[in-house]
Amino acid sequence: MAGINARRHRKRKLKAEINVVPYIDVMLVLLIIFMVTAPLLNLGVDIDLPQSNAKSIQEKKDPVIVSVDASGNYFLTVKAGSNEAVTAETLTAKVRGIVSQNPDVAVFVAGDAKANYQKVMDALVLLQGANVKKVGLMSQPDQATQGQANQGRR
């Protein structure tokens, strides 16, 4: 009986080795997959930038600003400080004349915060009718939000 107990005791002996062959196989498969797919990943975007014979800007031209006040009236600012009230027809005619002389003039729309949104959209339609290709919308940053952002930078 002593021999049977010794055999059982030998069978119960644990191995202290870890079979790492399956882990190595998985690792090699993943390595091959990453080596094959890495060159195929295109991290950048190829862009053909336009070529230009640009000269330095000698004169600074003031933008054209179309303002819409809270009651829906239109105002046209062509030069700094010259803010004149205009009707829809006058606005279209004047802006059309300015754009025909200088197609690259910057045109902005400034709408009062309390202005009717439809009036601002009407101003955009009027500018489109005056052959303006690009229009920018002006805004003023919120003072409370700007104050919080400045505190975070300190």
Automatic annotation (TrEMBL):
The biological process GO terms on file are: cell division; protein transport
Q: Kindly list the GO CC terms recorded for this protein.
A: plasma membrane
Q: Which InterPro entries match?
A: ExbD, Tol-Pal_TolR
Gene name, per UniProt, is tolR
Query: What UniProt keywords apply to this chain's record, in alphabetical order?
Result: Cell cycle, Cell division, Cell inner membrane, Cell membrane, Membrane, Transmembrane, Transmembrane helix
Query: Which residue windows are transmembrane per the record?
Result: 20-41
The similarity annotation says: Belongs to the ExbD/TolR family.
Oligomer status and interactors:
The Tol-Pal system is composed of five core proteins: the inner membrane proteins TolA, TolQ and TolR, the periplasmic protein TolB and the outer membrane protein Pal. They form a network linking the inner and outer membranes and the peptidoglycan layer.
Q: How does it sit in the membrane?
A: Single-pass membrane protein
Q: What does the function comment of this entry state? A: Part of the Tol-Pal system, which plays a role in outer membrane invagination during cell division and is important for maintaining outer membrane integrity.
Q: Where in the cell is it found?
A: Cell inner membrane; Cell membrane
Instruction: Give one GO molecular function term.
Output: transmembrane transporter activity
Q: What is this protein called?
A: Tol-Pal system protein TolR
Q: Does the keyword Cell inner membrane apply?
A: yes
A Pfam short name: ExbD
